[in-house]
Design goal:
This protein is α/β, with parallel strands linked by helices. Helix content is about 35%, strand content about 25%. Bound molecules: adenosine-5'-diphosphate.
Amino acid sequence: MPILECRKLKKTYHSKDSRTVAVTNFSYEFPDTGIVAIQGKSGSGKSTLLCLLAMVEEPDSGQLFYDGKEYSSLTGAEKLRFIREETSFVFQHYGLFEDMTVWENIILPLRMVGETRSQTKESIGFLLSHFGLEGYEKRIVSTLSGGEKQRVALIRALVKSPRILFADEPTGALDEENGEEVMKMLSSMSGSCLIIMVSHNTELVERYADRIITLKDGMKVRSK
Ligand code: ADP
């Protein structure tokens, strides 16, 4: 049973005098691990699709299955549990608290769910050193480079061992070298979780993604 599958997803945005079909007729069976990149021009529906898959937005029609269970059959508590325990989200502009330390940023989401085991603290230490940030625990986030901030954001997303990591343009604010570092990091994590990412960077995606979905006008025009 795939961890995530969707059938004929559709999402339309309505405003006063217009109607935009952001995603339509989108069906896909995701693998359990690896990097799946979503590509397409600006306005093609990439962010909307990511939000639908991550349960941030609700589709107008179509079906989403998590571990074979249909989204609409889940209770509010089940949806919340899935979002909180099984998934993580990473943003282009990091989403970190700039005036807090690296450690405080990483531990915050865990504190919110009451998770403070010493094992978790050990795994934060391991992740920091594994991704070249050994000794950064007490650094204030505003003093870090963009590449370092994105690595902290990824560690924060990873520390709860999500089964699915959603990433919206995780290399979008970075230069070539830091973008490459972040993709290497994602790649090294993708053996044990599914990473679904939106990216404009075709060159990096071609090199690091296991599968690529291309959208045009909200429709899947290619997948490989
Ligand atoms: P992309 O991520 O590929 O740039 P989006 O998913 O952001 O594309 O947007 C797809 C289409 O939906 C665009 O035409 C965009 O203007 C429209 N759209 C996205 N979000 C909203 C919204 N909240 N309200 C109205 N239209 C929206």
